[in-house]
Amino acid sequence: MSQSRFYSISPKGKMESFNSAEELISNHKNESYLWFDYYNPSSKELSTLIEPLSLHPLTIEDCTDENFVPKIEEYPNNSFMIFNAYTYEQKELYIDEVDFIIGKNYLVTVSGYNSNGRKPLNGIEKVVEREIENAKHGASHLLHIILDYIVDKKFVSIEKLEDELDEAEDILLSELEKFQAQDIILTRRHLLALRKSLFHEREILVKICRKDCPFISEKAIFHFRDIYDHLSKFFELTESYREIVSSLLEMNVSMMNNILTKSANQTNLSVRRLTLISTIFMPLTLLAGIGGMSEWSMMSGPENWKVSYPLFIFGMIIIGSLNYLLIKYLEKRD
């Protein structure tokens, strides 16, 4: 079953639904304007609008293209623009395309193309019904309502990214071993995608507010300036978040280096201790080797071993003590 919706909106605020585009066009009244809300349409479905709405074939091609980069293009009888809708779920950012074709008395919205079941404009008809006092003034006011809805959803995704950055910072400061640098790198990639999208969308709003789009009424331009302000703030937020990501990665490297330095210092201390012990016992080992061959009993006579061996052990203690004191003195002097 098709999920596309078709409406006629009168100047009195009456919103009438139709089953197909053909039915909507055939029942069109001069004082009303038309809203064609397509979800995941085929090129064939959209092509049926070329003749009755005087659409350029390139607009149909752009609606089914996989290029998600926002843009605005002017044609003799309408304006075409691409906007992006964001969805952030399970640490993955999804950017979906939403296309708009606005003419003198109609608005065409196309969403859901290559969106894997996501619905960027889900529930938009209820939003329009709530804002019918604004929507009844024309297609440009309806365009503002839909763009404002998309921009509000952008903020939800951006807030989720901010929460993840705050969580990553807390983990970095409290439990360094649980910090996942790859997650932060992925977040940086998402921020780059957001920055690219917001930059082009902001340019679209600049052109609208500059009155470069003839199908946007002058009364509606004031509303679009509010959307421009939101997009500018979001763009600045992405710049700030990118700086935070860079700081977190630098902090992680610095703290890991501190841990490695501490470990290296502990290893050096252990090696120094072993070196000290070896240095002290090297001459003692030599003397023990000589004493073990009974040299002392040969020099002092076998009958004097009770005296010679205690003196030998005492001498080893004196030599070991002198070695220890000499090493400590040299360390202090260095």
Any overview of this molecule?
It is built from 11 helices and 7 strands. A 7-stranded mixed β-sheet has the order 2-1-3-7-6-5-4, sandwiched between helices. It has 334 residues and is α+β, with helices and mostly antiparallel strands. A hairpin with a 2-residue loop joins strand 5 (79-89) and strand 6. The model has no long low-confidence stretch (mean pLDDT 85). Helix 8 (181-209) packs antiparallel against helix 9 (218-292) and helix 9 packs antiparallel against helix 11 (305-333). The chain has 2 domains: 5-256, CorA soluble domain-like (Beta Polymerase, domain 2); 266-333, no CATH class.
Keywords:
rod-shaped, 2 domains, alpha+beta, Beta Polymerase, domain 2, 11 helices, 7-stranded mixed sheet, 334 residues
Short note summarizing the structure:
The protein has 2 domains: 5-256, Beta Polymerase, domain 2, CATH 3.30.460; 266-333, no CATH class. 62% of the residues lie in helices and 14% in strands.
